[in-house]
Design goal:
- By secondary structure, the protein is of the alpha/beta class.
- The protein starts with a helix and ends with a helix.
- The chain is built from eight helices and nine strands.
- Strands 4-5-1-7-8-9 form a six-stranded mixed sheet, with helices on both faces.
- Helix content is about 40%, strand content about 20%.
- It has a single domain, classed as Rossmann fold (3-Layer(aba) Sandwich), CATH 3.40.50.300.
- Belongs to the TRAFAC class TrmE-Era-EngA-EngB-Septin-like GTPase superfamily. AIG1/Toc34/Toc159-like paraseptin GTPase family. IAN subfamily.
Length: about 230
């Protein structure tokens, strides 16, 4: 925890005084994505229970590097299940997660565990889960690779190339934004500071956070414009 205090003075001068983060991820045969663990690493404290499955969305907050950081953990779904077989309550909890950090999250962290391969089924399931939040949600998404210690000394870029087109397609949808969290470096503030800087850069590019109402209005406006153009 001393490392957090050591770096906090550098972050206090930054104009972004609050970061709102939603964690999204699935699970497979008892292999957890590491969402709750990622939330604990980000907040620098064990605020999410990692001994059980997250059954409903829950928010925790803490001051980190002089900023108020709100992290929302959401229920994981089975990667191998199509959306229609994912429990309706889990789908609703994920959609409602945006309301637990008003006016909306700065970023959706899509949690991908390095200890398993990312397949076409995984990609399709994730795209379907995110669909109710509109296509514009991807502008606010970043991939976070958990269980980073499995990489050993291998650069994450090598892992991305090795995994193939499904993972690369997901990264493209997220603007090629990604980060690695290593649970063996739990108290290493640098990996969290670097993540925050990537989020802040994304927020600047997007000129704000994701809000469901505004994004839906933009989507309807886009569709209306397309309809007008087709009619013309």
């Amino acid at each position: 925890m001393a490392a957090y205090a050591h770096i906090s003075k550098l972050a206090q001068s930054h104009p972004a005084t609050e970061l709102r983060i939603v964690l999204i991820g699935g699970r497979l045969n008892g292999s957890l994505s590491g969402k709750s663990s990622a939330g604990n690493i980000i907040l620098g404290q064990n605020v999410f229970d990692t001994s059980r499955r997250t059954a409903q969305s829950e928010a925790r907050q803490k001051e980190v590097f002089g900023r108020r950081v709100i992290v929302v953990d959401t229920p994981g779904w089975w990667w191998i299940w199509p959306k229609e077989e994912t429990p309706k309550l889990d789908q609703i909890e994920i959609q409602n997660s945006v309301h637990l950090c008003p006016p909306g999250p700065h970023v959706f962290l899509l949690v991908i565990p390095i200890l398993r391969s990312f397949t076409e089924k995984d990609l399709n399931a994730l795209v379907e889960i995110m669909k109710p939040l509109t296509e514009r949600v991807w502008r606010h998404c970043m991939v976070v690779f958990t269980w980073g210690h499995w990489l050993s000394d291998l650069p994450v870029e090598n892992y991305i190339v090795r995994e193939g087109k499904e993972l690369q397609e997901l990264l493209e949808k997220c603007g090629n934004r990604y980060h690695v969290l290593n649970p063996n470096r739990y108290s290493d503030a640098v990996q969290v500071k670097e993540l925050f800087q990537k989020i802040i850069n994304m927020v600047k590019q997007n000129k704000g956070c994701f809000t469901a109402e505004s994004e839906q209005k933009k989507e309807w406006s886009r569709r209306e414009q397309e309809l007008v153009e087709r009619m013309m």
